[in-house]
């Protein structure tokens, strides 16, 4: 019988450790269904994630998922409507050693012409971030600084725009004129 | 007539179309283009309980160059569309296409940026099968419909 994993640290304690590290740079802490999320700025992302990964009490060894959120036009609550950033990138972390989880959200604003602020890539911390960041870039148009291969991964390579942005027309379809490069074996670099 | 005296074996007089169509009807070789759950239903169609071989179409081919019945089963997205077109183009004439299920026929409930709203935007379709997914009987019904269509065709239509 393998040993039964412990329950890990409670969410409040993980958040407290991160707040101790970041201070006021932890912009917001939200808790929903017993799961806490800490919102930070892109500039603090790598520092926070390296701390979470390497701290001996936390040991978040696994980046489970990276996802994008577009809050444009959201009429949910006043707090959400008042926030000054449009996008968020959410990082779901899990520690296989400690059996606990945390969610980190990065606030991503837009400039005057609607282009999203860029976020530092973390693919060198967790290799899985490579494709996940490509997916966020493909569907939300949030670019990742330092990414080795920031190309489309879900939509085809003739696609224009970013499909999961709230201002992408829901019924706009874009045809692909020839088989996608990814489907042509041997002519594609699988980076 | 005099012909009986020349040929000693029994014989039947018919039209060439009738003979060729009779052969084509009961020896269709399907290519399953399965992209979603409809393809799982197709496993039931070819297996013992429903048994597509009762209709002569049990020899499933995975090369389009050996098939004459294209069964498109499942959601076809924009990225897959040129592949489906290429597979259809590789099939030798005569060939027929069945669009199986809501997604292949109309995009189903995937009314979004990624999904082709019916494969007839890409290739000609002979029979549409309703259902999400269709029952195996519906697929066999489509095979019978194709057979009826074949029996109305002439060999002069296909080059």
Question: What can you see in these coordinates?
Answer:
The complex is a heterodimer of chains A (about 190) and B (about 160). In chain A, about 20% of the residues lie in helices and about 20% in strands. Chain A has four helices and seven strands. Chain A has helices at about 10-20, 45-55, 80, 130-140, and strands at about 30, 35-40, 60-70, 85-95, 100-110, 120, 145. In chain A, strand 1 and strand 2 (about 35-40) form a beta hairpin. Chain B is of the alpha/beta class and about 160 residues long. Chain B contains six helices and four strands. Chain B has helices at about 5, 15-25, 40-45, 80-90, 100-105, 135-150; strands spanning about 30-35, 70-75, 95-100, 125-130. The two termini of chain B are about 35 Å apart. The chains are: A alpha/beta (about 190), B alpha/beta (about 160).
Which characteristics define this entry?
heterodimer; A: 191 residues; alpha/beta; five-stranded mixed beta sheet; two-stranded parallel ribbon; 22% strand; globular; disordered C terminus; B: 159 residues; four-stranded parallel beta sheet; 6 helices; 4 strands; 11% strand; elongated
Strand order of the largest sheet of chain B: 1-2-3-4
Count of DSSP strands of chain B: 4
N-C termini distance of chain A: 39 Å
Distance between the termini of chain B: 35 Å
Task: Give the fraction of residues assigned to helices of chain A.
Answer: 10-25%
The major β-sheet of chain B equals:
4 strands, parallel
Kindly name the structural category of chain A: alpha/beta
Number of helical segments of chain A? 4
Strand coverage percent of chain B: 5-15%
* Uncertain parts of chain A: 187-191
Main β-sheet description of chain A: 5 strands, mixed
Strand order of the largest sheet of chain A: 1-2-5-4-3
Q: Helix count of chain B, per DSSP?
A: 6
């Amino acid at each position: 019988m393998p040993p039964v994993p412990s329950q890990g640290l409670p969410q409040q304690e993980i958040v407290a450790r991160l707040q101790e590290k970041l201070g006021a740079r932890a912009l917001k802490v939200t808790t929903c269904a017993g799961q806490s999320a800490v919102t930070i700025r892109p500039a603090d992302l790598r520092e926070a994630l390296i701390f979470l990964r390497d701290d001996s009490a936390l040991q978040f060894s696994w980046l489970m998922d990276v996802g994008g959120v577009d809050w444009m036009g959201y009429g949910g609550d006043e707090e959400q409507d008042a926030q000054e950033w449009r996008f968020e990138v959410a990082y779901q972390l899990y520690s296989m050693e400690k059996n606990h989880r945390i969610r980190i959200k990065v606030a991503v604003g837009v400039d005057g012409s609607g282009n999203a602020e860029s976020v530092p890539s973390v693919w060198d911390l967790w290799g899985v971030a490579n494709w996940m960041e490509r997916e966020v870039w493909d569907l939300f148009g949030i670019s990742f600084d330092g990414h080795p291969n920031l190309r489309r991964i879900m939509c085809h390579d003739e696609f224009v725009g970013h499909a999961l942005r709230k201002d992408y027309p829901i019924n706009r379809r874009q045809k692909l004129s020839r088989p996608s490069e990814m489907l042509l074996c041997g002519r594609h670099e699988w980076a | 007539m005099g012909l009986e005296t020349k040929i000693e074996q029994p014989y039947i007089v018919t039209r060439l179309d009738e003979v060729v169509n009779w052969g084509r009807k009961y020896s269709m070789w399907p290519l399953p283009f399965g992209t979603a759950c409809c393809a799982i239903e197709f496993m039931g169609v070819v297996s013992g309980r429903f048994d597509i071989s009762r209709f002569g179409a049990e020899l499933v081919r995975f090369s389009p160059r050996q098939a004459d019945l294209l069964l498109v089963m499942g959601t076809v997205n924009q990225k897959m569309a040129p592949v489906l077109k290429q597979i259809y183009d590789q099939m030798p004439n005569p060939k027929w296409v069945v669009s199986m299920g809501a997604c292949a026929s109309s995009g189903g409930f995937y009314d979004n940026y990624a999904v082709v709203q019916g494969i007839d935007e890409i290739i000609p379709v002979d029979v549409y099968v309703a259902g999400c997914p269709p029952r195996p009987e519906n697929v066999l019904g489509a095979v019978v419909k194709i057979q009826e269509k074949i029996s109305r065709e002439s060999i002069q239509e296909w080059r």
